[in-house]
Write a structure and sequence with these properties.
Oligomer: single chain
Strand content: 15-25%
Number of strands: 8
Structural class: alpha/beta
Radius of gyration: 20 Å
Number of domains: 2
């Protein structure tokens, strides 16, 4: 489900007139989405102004499409910002951008290669690395849509940390996160032009298919594989499950605990609670393979 959908020009006008956050909030309420608290409202006001500055370029046409707050099918997660169109070869692309207001972050442990620690929501918390989060979202978007796969629509992930101090850039670029930022580059406070040029690699004209975002939002949802089929595929070396947000952080916490157990030969127990559909089975399977407890007979 897409909350806000407009052309680039309409989006820019809404930002200039200081209306975009109010419009997103009204649409959230209209669509009965559990969102739009004071902190989230402030983030729309702040981050979307920065995105307007990024895409305010004559080489990104006014009639390409912009979407805000796209809820990924079969999850409660939402993509912050989408811009869709076509590249110079007229290939349809969707660039998804994870927006962060972080000012700095720190590495937690080298075993925890999905997570960083940062100050958010009034406290220091463990969060997914922005590149991992953007990449995981892109995988879910692609895997959930038959039309994205059938029509070879490009899903291009990246992250924009518009307040992030460059002197802490070495944390996000640490080698342990390389697999993620090579798949989904991140851009910080002093990289506005780099992000703009990244977007222009994929968005240079309006898509010839005017229903591109409509297809993603309303197209056929690909059925989920049965859990047992996914396990068989994993045993063959394929990547079946991506962990989202707090799932990835908990996975890293479990890996760190298992690593400590191997080092000091002490037993520890972690109890993970969550209601139906929160990803406990997916988490358990990933930990099973990570700890090499699965023996290929």
């Amino acid at each position: 489900m897409i909350v806000y959908n407009a052309t680039k020009k309409e989006f820019n006008d809404d930002v200039i007139l200081n209306q975009v956050a109010d419009k997103v909030l009204a649409l959230v309420k209209e669509k009965n989405i559990n969102a739009g608290g004071e902190r989230e409202y402030r983030s729309w006001q702040n981050s979307l102004s920065f995105m307007r500055n990024v895409i305010d370029d004559d080489e990104i046409p006014d009639d390409v499409n912009v979407a805000i707050e796209y809820q990924i099918p079969k999850t409660s997660k939402r993509v912050d910002f989408i811009i869709s169109g076509a590249d110079k070869d007229n290939h349809n692309n969707v660039v998804i951008i994870e927006l962060k207001q972080w000012e700095k972050a720190e590495l937690i442990d080298r075993v925890m290669d999905h997570s960083v620690r940062t100050y958010v929501a009034g406290a220091n918390r463990m969060e997914s690395h922005p590149s991992y989060q953007a990449y995981a979202y892109s995988v879910f978007v692609k895997n959930s849509s038959e039309q994205v796969q059938d029509e070879d629509i490009g899903i291009i992930p990246c992250a924009y940390l518009h307040n992030y101090d460059p002197k802490y850039a070495d944390v996000l670029s640490n080698e342990i996160y390389r697999i993620w930022y090579e798949e989904a580059p991140y851009f910080i406070k002093n990289q506005v032009l780099d992000l703009r040029n990244f977007i222009k690699k994929y968005i240079r004209m309006r898509s010839s298919d005017d229903d591109l975002l409509y297809k993603i939002d309303n197209g056929r949802i690909k059925p989920s594989k049965a859990l047992q089929d996914c396990i068989v595929s994993l045993m063959k070396g394929n990547k079946e499950f991506m962990l989202l947000d707090e799932q990835a952080v908990i996975y890293d916490m479990c890996k760190k605990t298992m690593d400590q157990c191997r080092k000091d030969l002490k037993k520890r127990t972690m109890i993970i609670q969550g209601g139906p559909g929160t990803g406990k089975s997916v988490l358990a399977i990933n930990l099973w393979f990570s700890s090499k407890l699965c023996v290929n007979k």
